[in-house]
Each structure stands twice: as structure tokens, then as C-alpha cells.
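Hello,

Following up on my earlier ticket. Below are the two sequence lines again, exactly as submitted.
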Amino acid sequence: MTIRISTIWRLGIKELWNLLRTPTLLALIGVVFTIQIYAAAVSMPFTLNRAPISIVDEDASPVSARIASAFYQPHFGPPQAITLSEMNRRMDEGIDTFALVIPPNFQRDLLAGSEPAMQLNVDATRMTQAFTGAGYVQAIVSGEISEFLQRYRVAESASVDLVLRAGFNPELNPNWFSAMMEVVNDVALLSVILAGAALIREREHGTIEHLLVMPVTPAEIMLGKIWPMAVVVMGAAFFSITVVVQTWLAIPVAGSLWLLMLGMALQLFATTSLGIFLATIAGSMPQFGLLLMLVLFPLQILAGGLTPVENMPPGLRILLSLAPDTHFVALSQSIMFRGAGLDVIWPQLLSLVAIGLAFFSFSLWRFRWSLR
Amino acid sequence: MLGLIGPDGVGKSTLLSLIAGARKVQAGEIEALGADMRKARDRSEIGPRIAYMPQGLGKNLYPTLSVFENVDFFGRLFGHARKERERRIHELLAATGLDPFPDRPAGKLSGGMKQKLGLCCALIHDPDLLILDEPTTGVDPLARRQFWELINDIRANRPGMGVIVATAYMDEAADFDWLVAMDGGRVLATGTPTELQEKTASSSLDEAFIALLPEEKRSQHRQVEIPPRPQSDGEEPAIEANGLTIRFGTFTAVDNVSFRIPRGEIFGFLGSNGCGKTTTMKMLTGLLPASEGTAKLFGREVDPHDLDTRRRVGYMSQSFSLYFELTVRQNLDLHARLFQMWAKDIPGRIKEMARRFDLIEVLESLPDALPLGVTQRLSLAVAMIHAPEILILDEPTSGVDPIARDALWQSFADLSRKDGVTIFISTHFMNEAERCDRISLMHAGKVLVSDTPAAIVEKRGSADLEEAFVSYLEAAIEDEGGVSDTKPKADVASDIVHAIGPGHQPAQRRWLDLRRIMSYARREALELRRDPIRASFAFIGSLVLLFVLGYGISMDVEDLPFAVLDHDQTTLSRDYTLDISGSRYFTERPPILDHADMDRRMRSGELSLAIEIPPGFAREVAAGRDVEIGGWIDGSMASRAETAQGYVEGLHAHWLMRQARETHGDRALEADFQLETRFRYNPNVESLIAMVPAVIALVLLFIPTMLATLSIVREKDLGSIVNLYVTPVTRLEFLLGKQIPYVGLAMVNLAMLTIFAIFVQGVPFTGSLLAYALGGLLYAIAATGLGLFISSFMNSQIAAIFLTTVVTMTLAVQYSGMIDPVASMEGEAALIGAINPASHFVTVSRGAFSKALGFGDLAASLLSLLAAGPVLLALSVFFLRKQAR
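Thanks for your patience. The regenerated structure is below:
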């Protein structure tokens, strides 16, 4: 296997020229790494942001009024007073996630100590809000009722207190997470598409054959696609992190930016190799497009950026550990949020190198075969 | 019959496309059949009376469709009834000799047959004006001869039909009624061929044409002179092939081909299209491995890993091997560097090549902007930049005008005779074949004859090489027992005239014609069916996506790793820990040693929760004093942190209550009130039940949108979009026709996904199936409409794939309510959520699956979905062009 740096350099420069002469693509890259990141950050609601709640107050007592007034933004939207008959329809239509029913004579029974029951209806198809919200409702209602009762009773003081702090993101602000994960996702998306499509385009235009009759090896052609795409994506991501995320959105990056860039370089080696690998499988651009959907979407959605990997079934987790995204998401979370150093993230770096090499060698093996 | 002649890039093709209405007129006016081609209404009125065959073999045909289906598609576009259409098709195919293989895909036809098929497609609607743009470029002499016989016969029988032809062959032009010679976008001269010859006092049209050119161009022209080759025997041959054979499956493309080409010879390779010339050349360059036999260059066997030999060979393939994103100079420079020439030699070499191939003026232009002939010259320059000893050239002169062709041949001659370069060349031009030292005639993978041109003519007893060539081919075809294309002339002509009828009956113009829509829809569906990989990706792929995402997207927070820093180490502290580790939400990891350890393990993401129990915890609790337990949660993923926080607090409260009961007895258990929480629609709060209906919405957005986008952008890329420009189909009809098959595909997908969700994944379906199916249909229309919209303003396939991926991903994941309810969004996000078809279908799907809802309950969402499709379609019609710019 011969690899000459000068050849790879030349081929890469040619790719950069191509990108430069495709203004739509450049514009898209620009939009994705600026506006889309910003939009993702500001549009992502707090887990429990303005959760729609309505209250069926059949008691109409001071206690029920007190409870109704205790739900306020940002966690809950303004509570709607509705009737019992309206409740089912509203929940069916998905208007409310929560509906709290305060039965008649609630206050009387409460004061009489006969332990009255209240009902909280939760739309459990909204998984994200259902659990957390139910907990919040419980806490808010308990708080109001015990405060109300304190006027009548002396409370026993609790002797053990649990002081919980959220590390790395004290306000539990989801914008941090979604902005960073958007950058991470875009890096993977763009690099796979650019590298793979560049190869297919050369094949469809017949120029790849021409390269192969010159003293140029398949490995050089592949590396000549990998480095320019990696450089472009790195540049865009660097701009996005320093300007959009750190400056514009004022989101702090806990760890070393350079370490993150090192991780990103390895990730790009793996994803561009993956893109080339997919291109050697797909026969034409439409097939490549479909293949992308099949491979990229599960990776993007399941890599840990949207839902935690720990929750997934074991078989799927093993499968996902073969994907570069999973490792890159893990390492970037460690660096960006938890300020982890090389001593912590080296296993992910090694995995990325291994995955990249695997895809690269496999594509190399398929390269000539795929030209037929 | 009018002929347009002129060098490359003088505006012949542009003029023809303007007449056909495929391109937009910038200034001036064109009247075709009495209609002003600048006006859309006029164009659509006379459109059905014009037939346009663009340049390039089979450019407006659909390669995966069969011969019959291609003609049928055009027949439907022009609105013939079924019976009439079938009669015409059969007769046209019979007349053109295509009737034995109506089922062969157009992509697998030879060049000559493609052009005949193109002619059938053009003639099916009985045009009054036939526009042919270089119809015989790249076609072998036999097929070319047959093509013109066909045209002449048709004209003889339908004198009313006008024909405009652009051509590079002067011998063809000599038979036309009237010629227009063009140069530099201007008309040089007009007249009959004889008039032109008289005017310039030349003996042939070739000469007349050269004489008509402006002085500066003419001066560049010289007669090609090839000195005889010095005989030198016993020398090692430069190229040697022995029994070369290649099979693709059961098809033998090249069958036992052998030849020896000595150094410095010009060796010509002739044969009909698709006879194996290109494949043989690819084997010589090592691009294709031979199934049998050997190929040797410089006495060394061809080896794809042998880089040294490659440095001594130059290859030019039929498709230009140029980078269209690089300027002419950059292309030359890149290739020079890839061949590892010395950096200091490169500028000089580029200058030399530019001079030799007349590229100096265009050095800084992009190849895209250059005419065909110039790009062809550039390809040649690129193949020769490294001064190779062998040149393998695959039809290097097709599409190049006579002057440039002669110039190229002069340089071949110089290379061969002065520098001893061996040239292996394939061509369709007989006058070029005559210039070769030796030629081989190939047919159907076999070499028929191999000798000097003069010897071949002599052997066959023919007048000239062309005749010898044709007679060899005809003999070979007859030997095979194949179809002879020589039908009695009179028959052909009357057949065709019979087929297309004597005159034109103007069809009723309708704003929206169902037949034309269905014509496109059928075509698209056929193409989808012919690409089993695409179809199976679409079907199997969506099931895989549903399976993986349905199980994978899980909002359950379970088995979060936690560990304890226990300073107390008493029974009580261990009891507290046990409560947490005993729950299904947390799993315990080895205890934390100290704060540094905790910090490290939290940082690496190993722990989601760390608990610190202070020293003297048990003692303080027993004494009734206040104690604080510390807890740290990994807050980087906010939603998970909040859920975890809720769990820990719950567990803590539970522990407190248990402690109280143990110390104070049962009385302490009494609560003030009860809050009964009912998790509706999904009582066990299972992720699968919540997620699968939403994932169906997701998958239905991804795949049909991508397919619809690429179906149009691809037509733009490959050139068949020209059918939209020149046929009476309107933009709306075109888009609807494209959309229908993909809506169908989406509905099949929906059915498959739903069945899979219910029976394999076990998600109960409780609502109205009909309302769900209707929602699905409206959603499929909206999703494909989104694809049409994206494709209406996108031209590059890469950018289209990228944009579609980003848009569908964002709409489906962020703004659909799949994870975060749309009701919780604010500002622009809420707006996007409200107009996003995906968010409405998520509501419909979840409602129908889990909430037992019917039409009434889902009316609002269904109405929103109903509106989305037409809005997107209208936007697409607005952005799509009906003419090239």
C-alpha cells in the first residue's frame, strides 16, 4: 500500500474547490451550524416547561383556591378551571397533560382528619412530562396543604434533610444540553453526507476511473476525501462552539476545547469513513439517500443525545457501541459538561480510532469492487 | 429539412432548445409554427406540435423503462386513447425495427437503437416540427445510415413536417435542403448545400464549411499529414492482448480478443455501440479484471497495483474525466501533480499542452461553461499531460467539429511518428479510421477483422471503408440469425405515416389533464419497481427504523448508576443506602472513597448520582438532631436529572416515613390527604406504547420525503427534466404525477408499520382505524409535498439530500411533540410546532392507538393535515421552472 502525502493533499484541495463552487451547500452548512444550533437551544423547553394543567374544582373552598393558585410558570402553564365533563375531552385531544380533580367537601374532610382523596390524571403518552410533572404536582399540593393545616396544627420537624444539588448544570437548563448535542449531531450528519456523496458523485461522473488509471491508490483517494471534509466540518463546528454556543448563547464549556477538537477529529475520521463505506454499498444517489436515513437517524436519535443510552435494551446497546456517534456523544458530554480530561475519555478516543480504522479498511477492500 | 452546421459551442444546441421552448428567451423573438415562444400561452398551445430530441444518446429516455414503456409514456403525455396509442406504438416499433425487443430496458440498447427509440418517442404525437440535436453523434456508421433512411422516408410520406437538425457530420449535411452555417453565436451563411459550395468554390461541404469560417480560424486549419511508419520488426510490443474475455454474469461482453500493437503505432478500434470496445480498453488499463486471457503493457502483465506502469499510460474515457469544479488550468495542474511531475516542470508543460490543444484563452474558465468539443480537447490534454508512452483514447473526437478533429489528429500523428507514442483509439468516423496504421473491427464482443484499412477495403471488395464496415457488420448480424434492419423502404415509410396519421388534430387543452398526471405517475411507479434496492430499502428500512427507534427511544429512567460516600458506616447509614439500591431506578456501584474519587467518577459519567452521608449520622439521628445528607446529580442531561431528582426525593421521604414508624409507631404514618395519580392511556407508563405511534409518524416523514425529493432533483441532474420543458405537461401535472406513486408507497408503508406495531411490538390499537388511515393519507400527501417543495428549488443531489435530512430530522424529532409536547413550546418553536404536519400526525397516531379516539376527536388535527398538502404543492408549483434558464 502506497500512500503519498502530496497526492492526498492535491485531491483534498480539489474537494475544497468543489465545495466552494456549490454555494447552496455552503449556505446550508452555514445555516445549520449557526441558526439551527441557536434555534435548537432556545426552542428546547425545560422538561417541565409550561406543562398544560387544568383543575376541576368541585370544592370551591379556600384550600382548593390556594392549590389552584400555586401552579405557576415556568413549570406549569396557567391552570385552566374546567368541569369534570370537559376533562375527558380535553385530555383526549391532548390539550392538557395534567388534570387535577378536587372532590366536593375536600376542605371539610381535610380538617376533620378523614384523609380525603384528590385525583391527578396524567397523559402518560407524554413520557417526558408525565413522571416529573406528577412529582411536582404532588410536592406543590402537599406543600400548600401542610401550610394550610399549620394554622391548625403544630408540625413535627423532620430530622433528616436531603440536600440535592445538580452538578455541572446547576439550574438543570436543558438549553445547554440541546445546543451542544445539536453541534455534535450536525458534525456526524454533515461529515457522513459530504464524504459519501463526494465519492458517489465522482463515480457517477466517471472521474474515479480516471484516478484509478493514474498512479493513485484507492487509499489515497479515500484519504483525499476524508481530510477536506473533516477540515470543513471541524472549522464549522469550532466556529459554532466558540461563537454561537459560548458567546451568543453564553453557555459555558466546562472542559478543554482543544481536547474536544481532538475527539472531534477522531470522530470525523470515523464518520467520514462510514460515509465512504455507505457510498461503496449504495449504487446511486437515491440509494445513498435512503441508506443515510436508515443509518443516520437511528444513530442520531439513539446515540445518547436525545435519550440516555443506559435505558436501551442490551442488544441495542451492543449494536450502538459499534457506532462512532455513541462514543463521541459520551466523550463530548464528559468534556463539555463535566470538564473531563484525557484521563477520563481515553477509552472513547480509542474506540473511535478502532471504529474508524474498521470502516476505512472495509471500504478499501470494497472500493474496486464497488466500481463495477 | 434544415441543417445547422458549425464548430463546437457556436450556439447550435442553444438555438434549437430556444425553438423548442426548453430554454428561456432573453432578447429578441422566436416564432415557431406561428407562435411566439416567449409567451407561455403560445408555448403551451403549439407545444404538442413540436418534437424535440436533445443532444446526447437517449438523454430524454428513461433507462430503466423498457422500449415499449418509454414510447407509451410519451403517448400518454400527448393524450392518446389506449387503443390508438397501442396501434401507433406497435407500428412505430415495427417500422424502426425495434419490435423484436419491446421489453428491453432503454439503458441496455446500443446507441443507434437509443436514437431510433428517441425518434419513436418524438414521432408518437404526430408533430409538425421535428427538432433533432446531433442525433447521430456517437452512433456507428451502420446505425447512422439506417437512421437517416428512416427520416428521409418519413419526410417523403409526410411532406408537411419540418425537420431541423444540428450535426457535426458534413456528409449528412450534404443531403439537407437548406443549411445554416453558424459561428460564434452568429449565422455565417445560409443556402442549399450546393449554393454554399458554389459560393466558396469548394469541392466538398467540408471544405466549404472551412472556407466560410473567419480568417483567424481558417488559418489554424491544415490538412492532416501522417508520414509512413518506419518498419521495425522483432521489437517488443507496447500493448499485447491474448484471449481477453470478460463476463458479467452470463453475458460475455468481450470474447477472446487478441492483438499485438507495436510501439508507435496508431491502432484504431471500430464497432457498433456496446460491442465491447470500452470494456476492452478498461481491461487494458486494469480498471476491470479479465475473466480469462492476459493483457500486457510494455511486456508486463496489467496489474492494478502497479503504479509505475500507470505513469507511462494516458487514458481518456468516454465520459469526460474532468473535474467540473476546477478551472481548465487547475485540472491540468491537478493531473500533472497526481502523476508526480516535478513541480518546476509543471507550468511549462501546462503552457505547452494549452498551446497544442488551443486552450490558452480558456485556461481560467470552468469546463462546464465550455462547449463539448473544447471539453473533449481538454480531456485529451489531461490524458497527455504527463507525456505517456501509450495513449488509450475512447472516442476522443465524438462531438468535435471537423477543424478541431483535424488538429487533434495532427497531434496524434506527431506523437506517434516523432515521439514514438503508441496510440490505441476507438472512433466512429471513417475518415479517422482510414488514418490509422491498422484497425480492428469489433462486433458483439468479438473481433471480426484486423488489418490495415486499405487491406480491409480490398478484402471486402468495397468502394470505401464505410461500405466495407457496413458489409462486415451486416454479415455478422446475419450469421447470428439476428434481425436484419433492412426492411423494404416503401414499407417503412408508409408504416410510419400510417402509424402517426396524416394530419394533426389539435387536442383539447385542459388545465389539468388526468391522463398526463397518470402518465408521469405510471412512469415513476415503474421506475421504482425496476429498482428493487430502492423499494426494499423503503419497505424493510422503515420496519427496521420502527423496530430500533421504538425500542431505543426510552424515557424510562431505570438502573441509574449511583454510589455512596459513607463517612458514618453504621447500620443506619447502610439502611439508607439499601433503600436506594433496592429500588428499580438505581443500581449501586462500588462505594466512593473520597471527594476526589467522587469528582472523577461523576466527571467520567460513571455515576449519575452520588450520596454523601456525614460522620456521626446515626448518632445525630438517635439524638433527634438535624442532619444533612448530601446528594449530587449529574445535571448535564437536564430531563434525566429532573426525573432522577424526583426519585431520590421520593425514596428519601419513604425512608423518613419508615424511620418515623419504627420510632413513633403507626400513628405517624397518617397522612393529611391522598393524591391518587392515574396514568391514563398508558397505565404502566411504558415507553414503547408512548413512542411507537410517534415513531410511525417519524418514519413516514423520512422515507417518502427523501424519495420524492430525489425523484425530481435526479431528473434535473440527468437531463430528462427536458421532457417537462418541451411536452404539454404542466408543472402541476408533473408534480402530482411524481407525488402519487410515493403517496402510494407511503400508504403501503403505513399499513406495514401499523401491523408491525400492533402484532409484533404489541402496542394496543384502541381508536378508529378509518380516522387513522385518513390521517395517514393526508400526512403522506404532506410529507411527499414537502419533498416536492424542497426539490423545486434544489439542483444538486448532495445539497438536496443534506437539506432533506436536516429538515425532516428537525421537524420529526424537535418540533413534532414526540418527546416534548408542542403545547410546552414557546415563540417560533410553538409556531413551527403548530404548522408542522408531523406534530398533527403524532396527535392522530397517539390518539388512535392509545386514546381510543375517532373522527370527531381528531377533527382539528385532520383539518390541519388536509391543508398542509395543497399548500406545499402550491409552493412547489411556484418555485419549479418550466424552462431552463
